[in-house]
């Protein structure tokens, strides 16, 4: 028995429009408070989690989340920094997923999107894991593709958290090692 809610007709159109409006509002809001987000660093791991959500919830407008992970990896436990940043990053990426759900034709003419959509359709969660792990600006398109393909949101988040956390481990440890490097350099 499948208890999944199936949206059709005007309800599907309304859900897509609401999801697109939500993505636009979140993107504009985060871009306007990007300077305030820097103050969250003083809050440790919860601050890293929130900064990572904010940094990844924008579409198109860049917010430097990995730089904060790098810096915080130098002063806090890099594994916990990576876990907080990876989980926050994956949750923030739901905006791309929602954008894909809201309107399949939003970026459908983009060749990079079409390749990512085919990659995601062929490899499913593994494609999300790979795209989340590789530092690149295309993950928004992978999230859009996952939403457009109606990948279950739990599956999308599961693979995104794993990929983002693995990527953040690399950045957090690079930050931790940079402190040792500077100490050795300065004597």
Model description:
With 187 residues, this protein is mainly α. It has one domain. Helix content is 75%, strand content 0%. It contains 10 helices and no strands. It has helices at 9-32, 34-37, 44-56, 65-73, 78-92, 94-102, 111-123, 125-133, 139-148, 153-186. α4 packs across α10 and α5 (78-92) packs antiparallel against α10 (153-186). The protein is elongated and about 65 Å long. The mean pLDDT is 79.
Keywords summarizing the entry:
single chain, 187 residues, mainly alpha, 10 helices, 0% strand, elongated
The radius of gyration is 18 Å
Low-confidence stretches: none
The count of helical stretches stands at: 10
What fraction of residues sit in β-strands? Answer: under 5%
- The overall average pLDDT, rounded, is 79
Principal-axes geometry comes out as: elongated
Distance between the termini: 67 Å
- List the domain count as a whole number: 1
- By DSSP, the count of extended strands is 0
| H-E order | HHHHHHHHHH
By helix and strand content, what is the structural category?
Answer: mainly alpha
- How does the major sheet shape up? none
In short:
This protein has helices spanning 9-32, 34-37, 44-56, 65-73, 78-92, 94-102, 111-123, 125-133, 139-148, 153-186.
Write the layout of secondary structure elements.
Layout: H1 9-32, H2 34-37, H3 44-56, H4 65-73, H5 78-92, H6 94-102, H7 111-123, H8 125-133, H9 139-148, H10 153-186
Helix pairs in contact: 1-6, 3-4, 3-5, 4-5, 4-10, 5-10, 6-9, 7-8, 7-9, 8-9, 8-10
């Amino acid at each position: 028995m499948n208890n999944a809610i199936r949206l059709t007709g005007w309800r599907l159109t309304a859900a897509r429009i609401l999801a697109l409006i939500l993505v636009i509002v979140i993107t504009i809001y985060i871009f306007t408070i990007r300077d305030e987000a820097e103050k969250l660093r003083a809050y440790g791991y919860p601050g890293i989690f929130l900064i990572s959500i904010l940094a990844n919830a924008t579409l198109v407008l860049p917010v430097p989340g990995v730089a904060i992970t790098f810096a915080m990896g130098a002063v806090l436990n890099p594994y916990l920094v990576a876990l907080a940043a990876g989980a926050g990053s994956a949750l923030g990426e739901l905006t791309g997923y929602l954008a894909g759900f809201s309107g399949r034709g939003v970026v459908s003419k983009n060749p990079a999107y079409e390749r990512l959509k085919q990659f995601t359709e062929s490899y499913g969660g593994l494609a999300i894991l790979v795209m989340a792990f590789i530092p690149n600006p295309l993950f928004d398109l992978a999230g859009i593709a996952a939403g457009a393909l109606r990948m279950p949101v739990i599956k999308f988040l599961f693979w995104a958290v794993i990929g983002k956390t693995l990527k953040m481990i690399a950045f957090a440890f690079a930050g931790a090692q940079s402190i040792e490097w500077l100490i050795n350099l300065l004597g």
